[in-house]
Design brief:
mainly beta, four-stranded antiparallel β-sheet, 256 residues
Length: 256
């Protein structure tokens, strides 16, 4: 779609620290929607331009070097990001639009009994609609939001002589997901986190219409950990002709 963006960034900076801030608002028009056409046209999916979205957010990046010497140094960087997308308009005559199929017509959702994405004017783009018991009757309500409240990253780099240790942690706070895998395990009584294998949970979901599979998707992840050693220059030259330096490195990703 068409996009427009405005932002502000004013980073004060020194040799050992920096702070960058960015605020933005992005308006996106002419969204491409997959609508269900009349069966008589011989196709099960149609494409229509329409609707608009407004994104607002903030991004912050902080870099520090608390210790810096000939033998030991420590540098760190922290990032923060938050984005909220709101549906501001849909095509005339459409008050809400369920995202059930991809561009090829392939079904990608299991209905509001489990949790479904829905575009609705004035609501978040990432809302999850699911069924639940409200006042004794089963109704569709907003039961989650796929977007995290914020994400953060924490990176550190330690150097001691020829040794170097780097690490990167990711934190995603809130943000929901629909766990259909658990539903499959529950249906056969194989889920290990409840005594009955999930049979009662599947019954509440499928027979009573009370959605059971919208879960908090928060996580903290050790995305990367690396240890490296810089070989002496003379050894590097003898091992690799013409090389000015070489380093042995051990790295692991998504460790915990």
């Amino acid at each position: 779609g068409r996009e427009g963006e405005s932002g502000v960034a004013a980073p004060p900076r020194t040799d050992r620290d920096s702070l960058a801030r960015r605020f933005y608002r992005k308006n996106i028009a002419d969204r491409i929607l997959n609508v269900v056409p009349r069966p008589s046209i011989g196709s099960n999916v149609g494409v229509q331009n329409g609707g608009s979205i407004r994104n607002r957010g903030v991004e912050v990046a902080l870099r520090l070097t608390p210790v810096q010497s000939d033998r030991f140094s420590w540098s760190s960087h922290t990032t923060f990001a938050r984005n909220v997308g709101i549906v501001t308009a849909l095509p005339p005559g459409i008050t809400a639009f369920n995202i059930e199929r991809d561009a090829t017509g392939q079904r990608v959702a299991f209905g509001s009994g489990y949790g479904i994405a829905r575009l609705e004017v004035g609501k978040r783009v990432t809302q999850i609609i699911a069924t639940d018991s409200v006042g004794g009757t089963v109704q569709e309500i907003q039961k989650g939001d796929a977007a995290p409240a914020f994400t953060m990253g924490f990176g550190n780099d330690f150097t001691f002589g020829r040794w170097r240790l780097t690490s990167l942690f990711d934190w995603s706070h809130k943000g929901d997901l629909v766990d259909i895998t658990m539903d499959v395990y529950d249906a056969f009584g194989l889920s290990p986190n409840v005594a009955d294998g999930g049979l009662n949970r599947a019954k509440r979901n499928d027979q009573l219409g009370v959605s059971q599979y919208v879960f908090d998707g928060s996580f903290v992840k050790l995305r990367e950990l690396t240890v490296s050693y810089e070989l002496p220059e003379a050894f590097s030259r003898s091992l690799f002709r013409g090389a000015r330096g070489s380093r042995i490195e051990f790295s692991g990703r998504n460790l915990k």
